[in-house]
Write a structure and sequence with these properties.
The complex is a heterodimer of chains A (118) and B (179). Chain A is mainly α and 118 residues long. Helix content of chain A is 43%, strand content 3%. Chain A contains seven helices and two strands, in the order ααααββααα. Chain A has a two-stranded antiparallel sheet. In chain A, helix 4 packs across helix 7 and helix 5 crosses helix 7. Chain B is elongated. Classes of the chains: A mainly alpha (118), B mainly alpha (179). At the A-B interface, helix 4 of A face helix 2 and helix 6 of B.
């Protein structure tokens, strides 16, 4: 399922096109939303569409699909987002977001949900 | 006479209907008691909102808390690391992997002191929360020890993840009691 997204990125002339891959190609947004509730993302982030997600420790995630930089240091591409979700402490040691033990598939599903946030 | 008879009959019928509906759920096993699926949105909203309003009401009569000392905050950190971090994580620290299997899942507490007053936090830690897995720490610890934890929760929003890591390294948790 993820092959087409990679191909789109390889053949696209602009990096921005990678970020605009249909979210259904990245993962299952509805599964991602449930995972985000269970992982307590909302304890630190305000997230539209996630119950009780009103945390103020991390940045609000409204409009995530239109964000250009994630974590203050990475281009907002699906691959970068998945890498960040899986190992934020490896990418930016000492930041407040813990490594959450997400599997690759879980990170893809959460990424798919985040890219539905316009 | 006739109207009141109808009224009483209506009340009895409504009561019987409610009771039989309730008993059907109880004895029919019609409530999803699995922890592997989250509450539906209505149950999640009802239980969570009830808890919030209960705590606000119950904690209100407590006397106002005074400022916390550094010794209290430090003692609270050690208790937090020993007893709380496994379920609630910390700045830059995830909860234990098995906690992903809990429903409802315990929240991270980085900014809880911005949502609750110290008295309300004291109430929550001391009395726990039914049906969430949150124990009543007041049953095994003194009020002073519970206040220490509140002191640390109050300090947590100002604690950088690196500071928290340093404290974890330099101040390992005390040996478990009774060990």
């Amino acid at each position: 399922m993820r092959g087409p997204a990679v191909l789109v990125c390889l053949f696209s002339l602009t990096l921005a096109a990678c970020g605009r891959a249909p979210t259904s190609v990245i993962g299952h947004a509805r599964v991602g939303a449930a995972l985000m509730g269970q992982a307590q993302c909302g304890a630190c982030h305000a997230i539209p569409g996630i119950a009780a997600a009103n945390g103020m420790s991390g940045p609000p995630l409204k409009g995530f699909a239109g964000r250009t930089i994630i974590a203050g240091m990475l281009a907002n591409t699906p691959d970068n987002l998945v890498a960040w979700l899986r190992a934020p402490q490896t990418i930016s040691p000492g930041n407040a977001m813990p490594n959450m033990n997400l599997s690759d598939a879980q990170a893809h599903d959460i990424a798919a949900y985040l890219y539905t946030l316009q | 006479m006739r109207r009141s008879a109808w009224f009483i009959g209506g009340v009895v019928a409504a009561g019987a209907l409610t009771a039989s509906g309730g008993l059907t759920i109880v004895y029919g096993g019609l409530f999803d008691a699995r922890a592997s699926t989250p509450h539906g949105p209505i149950v999640a909203w009802a239980t969570h909102t009830t808890m919030i309003h209960y705590i606000r009401r119950a904690a209100a009569p407590l006397p106002p808390s005074s400022a916390f000392t550094p010794a209290q905050t430090l003692a609270g950190f050690r208790a937090y690391e020993a007893d709380c971090e496994v379920c609630h994580g910390g700045p830059g620290v995830a909860h234990a992997h098995w906690v992903d299997g809990m429903n409802p899942s315990p929240p991270y507490l980085l900014d809880q002191s911005r949502r609750w007053t110290p008295n309300q936090l004291f109430w929550i830690v001391r009395n726990g929360v039914k049906m969430t897995g949150m124990p009543a720490w007041g049953l095994t610890q003194s009020d002073a020890e519970v206040w220490n934890l509140v002191a640390f929760l109050e300090a947590m929003p100002d604690l950088a993840p690196a500071d928290y890591q340093r404290m974890r390294t330099e101040l390992p948790p005390p040996a478990p009691r009774g060990a």
